């Protein structure tokens, strides 16, 4: 009888200990900041690897639940992606640059597509897009409306986008967070957006703002920069998929073919542009020319694999080089959609001040990646967007450097 009593006592103690640990785990999650949850639970990560299944940090967050209320079925077809990993596992790190944006969300009269393996969680009126857990990255996207829908007219929201996004960025830059990229306006006739970047010691916070017909929405991409550095690509692709309810669905084409052996790195053909000149590879052809816009391309079997877009922006009163940088993206060169990405740097090239950033260009026929530079020349600001294949960014960087370093001024 004593043996039976001892066994029952041990069972009771083990049961209580298990519950205590479970409650302690739950309480610990509620105390941790949202952006640090994924890195705080090594045991659960090991379990994920063993079971090879998708896990999400917000499933363990007090007050948050999976939410499908923003999902809509637009029947848009698949977004072109470079995702080949098992759909029941987390994305591979290299896939983050070109994800499968096939889930459609609708919020405040605005459509946007998110990756297939991400999930939306909500807590009251707060929404988060969570990426599956991985040892290789740690990413989530917070969604916040800056106002109540309808507080401002559509025109007011467009006109005050920079003002509101700048104020919101300043409000976020506290508690050890610093603004590393002030607000950049992604000028567009139909898609009004802006972005800024804030960082602390461990995380980057890329804040993307879009003016919808009813509100301004802040999509904050939170990324552990010790593990990955792909927020700029995610932001750019998110914007390429998005559109206000009153506009047509954007069509994007991407190719992930390797054109490495087709890219000519030698910039030998001189191009005169009046007060300045530069050199491009001999096999690039002039496909468009006007007073304010000149385009050079290299095509392979009818596919554009390299492109140099040179546009002139007439100086207006009090216009700065930063203003000009903003004006030479978005849909200012239709039918393309052009986004600068990440931090914009200021540098000197041949004693001339340049603004420079990574960039992507999206069209219905192709999408390319490279960089963008803007400089002042006479009565104009000049923008050069130099891009190449998505699969050959290293060679594109080398070619772009050769072209930019060949710039000479009268």
Automatic annotation (TrEMBL):
Q: Which domain of life is it from?
A: Bacteria
Query: Where does this protein have compositionally biased stretches of type Polar residues?
Result: 23-34
Protein's UniProt name: Lipoprotein
Q: Which organism is it from?
A: Anaerococcus porci
Q: Where is this region: Disordered?
A: 23-48
